[in-house]
Amino acid sequence: MPDVKLEIQMLYDRVMVRISPEDGERRSSGGIVIPATAQMAKRLAWGDVFGVGTGVRHVKVGDRVLFNPEDQLEVEVQGTTYLVMRERDLHAVATELTEHGTGLYL
């Protein structure tokens, strides 16, 4: 039987996110390099949405979202690690135009 490729479809309120690569090593405002392994307070991460379930209302594929990566489940697909979470676990979405924004931009 030949290999059949199956498309992944997220269910209900689930979102599949890939953590942005720049969330590893970072620099302080003074230029000091802070390694990704440095112990800090819990840190939220930005990621890109790769799939959404039918019950997801506020994000879409391609959005950039803010979330806590420590509380999520990981899945590996074709060598790339993704996180699967509920939409309610997202803290923010980066968008071009909004009525209720913070006035801060990425």
Topology, element by element:
Elements (H helix, E strand, L loop, with lengths): L13 E6 L6 E2 L5 E2 L10 E8 L11 E4 L5 E5 L2 E7 L3 E5 L12
Antiparallel strand pairs: 1-4, 1-7, 2-3, 4-5, 5-8, 6-7
Key descriptive features of the protein:
GroES-like_sf; single chain; Chaperonin_GroES_sf; mainly beta; 37% strand; 106 residues; Chaperonin_GroES; 8 strands; two-stranded antiparallel ribbon
Q: Strand-residue fraction? A: 35-45%
What composes the largest sheet?
6 strands, antiparallel
Query: What average pLDDT do the residues reach?
Result: 80
What is the overall shape? globular
Number of strands: 8
Supply Rg.
16 Å
Estimate the helix proportion, in percent. Answer: under 10%
The helix/strand series, from N terminus to C terminus, equals EEEEEEEE
Which regions are unreliable across 5 or more consecutive residues at pLDDT < 50? none
Widest β-sheet, arrangement of strands: 6-7-1-4-5-8
Number of helical runs? 0
Structural class: mainly beta
- Measure the end-to-end span: 48 Å
